[in-house]
Specification:
This protein has 2 domains: about 10-35 and about 110-205, P-loop containing nucleotide triphosphate hydrolases (Rossmann fold, 3-Layer(aba) Sandwich); about 40-110. It is about 50% helix and about 10% strand. The protein is built from 9 helices and 5 strands, in the order E-H-E-H-H-H-H-E-E-H-H-H-E-H. It has helices at about 20-30, 40-45, 50-60, 75-80, 85-105, 140-150, 155-165, 170-175, 185-205; strands spanning about 10-15, 35, 115, 135-140, 180. It has a 5-stranded parallel sheet, with helices on both faces. Helix 1 (about 20-30) crosses helix 9 and helix 3 (about 50-60) runs antiparallel to helix 5 (about 85-105). The chain is globular, with a radius of gyration of 18 Å.
């Protein structure tokens, strides 16, 4: 991965499933802040014609493609998560492609700051090399479980299993500069975003 020095002030936003990080990133967007989401970029890099898709086909075979030559994500997951070696191969193809497209998008930002949504951000992440602040969105465990159950129709056990595969809030908070505690209403989460928006604008303009 290439070294990168952004010209704008970059805030990394992260949080676990059900924390409400999308509510927060959507409000930053509504305030006019450029928001770049690595989950969206992860889908863009495997669109037809993209080099990463061809690399995945070369690595895992044409069975990971639908009839229209788009990626069959379910088929890829079954193959790539079948072994540690296959998962490593998947990561070696996708992670650099996601990173490169991310910094390309960040380089185009002209606003005083931008929010970079990184659900998998951890203490070993290459993104920390250029993030100026890390914002972690948290919520109580039961709050997160109920939110995910409501929107996804998954059972409690299924939600808990997903949560157990993710980084804990405790680990996320070790890299946090700012925290949004999102246990209450939408309006209260948005109010916290607006406070941070003013702070980040000042920091970005001073930078």
């Amino acid at each position: 991965m290439q070294a990168f020095k952004p010209t704008s002030f970059i805030v990394g936003l992260t949080g676990g499933i059900g924390s409400g990080k999308t509510v927060c990133s959507d409000h930053f967007d509504a305030l006019g802040v450029p928001v770049i989401d690595t989950d969206i970029i992860a889908r863009e890099i495997v669109e037809p014609g993209q080099p990463a898709l061809q690399q995945l086909v070369d690595a895992f075979g044409r069975s990971i493609l639908n009839q229209d030559q788009t990626l069959d994500r379910s088929a890829l997951r079954k193959i790539a998560f079948a072994s540690a070696e296959a998962k490593l191969k998947l990561d070696q193809i996708t992670h650099p492609a996601i990173y490169d497209l991310t910094i390309s998008k960040v380089s185009e930002v002209t606003f005083p700051y931008c929010v970079l949504v990184i659900p998998l951000l951890n203490s070993d992440s290459a993104y920390l090399d250029f993030l100026r602040r890390v914002l972690v969105v948290t919520a109580a465990r039961e709050t997160k479980i109920e939110r995910v159950k409501k929107r996804s129709k998954l059972s409690r056990d299924e939600v808990v299993r997903i949560m157990e595969t993710q980084l804990s809030d405790g680990d996320r908070l070790k890299i946090a500069d700012d925290i949004i505690e999102n246990d209450a209403s939408l309006a209260e989460a948005q109010q916290q975003v607006e406070v941070l928006h003013k702070k980040y604008l000042e920091l970005g303009l001073q930078d």
